[in-house]
């Protein structure tokens, strides 16, 4: 009976250690998630700003002349 109690006690200690380890890992993962969510928001903002700048530059470009058609090339 003492042996069974000792085995049970060891298993409870292992379970407690595992639970503590999982709590630490969970806390670390939550921190990583927060950091990555923040980084994702920053990158999304940068993409939006770049898109706006490119759109503005495209609006400033002069309209391109239409490409000559095949019949126009033959007459030239």
Listing every helix as H and every strand as E from the N terminus to the C terminus, the arrangement reads: HH
Structural class of the secondary elements?
mainly alpha
- Overall geometry comes to rod-shaped
How far the N terminus sits from the C terminus, by CA atoms, comes to 106 Å
Report the major sheet. none
- Quickly count the helices: 2
Beta-strand content estimate:
under 5%
Q: Can you tell me the residue ranges where pLDDT is under 50 for at least 5 consecutive residues?
A: none
**In total, how many beta strands?**
0
Radius of gyration: 33 Å
What does this 3D model show about the protein?
The chain has 76 residues and is mainly alpha-helical. It is built from two helices and no strands. The chain has helices at residues 2-60, 70-75. The radius of gyration is 33 Å and the shape is rod-shaped. The model has no long low-confidence stretch (mean pLDDT 92).
Concise structural overview:
The chain has two helices and no strands. The chain has helices at 2-60, 70-75.
Write the layout of secondary structure elements.
Elements: H1 2-60, H2 70-75
Any key phrases for this structure?
rod-shaped; 2 helices; mainly alpha
């Amino acid at each position: 009976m003492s042996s069974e109690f000792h085995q049970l006690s060891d298993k409870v200690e292992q379970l407690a250690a595992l639970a503590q380890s999982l709590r630490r890992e969970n806390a670390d993962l939550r921190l990583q998630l927060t950091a990555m969510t923040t980084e994702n928001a920053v990158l999304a903002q940068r993409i939006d700003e770049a898109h706006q700048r490119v759109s503005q530059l495209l609006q400033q470009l002069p309209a391109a002349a239409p490409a000559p058609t095949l019949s126009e090339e033959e007459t030239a």
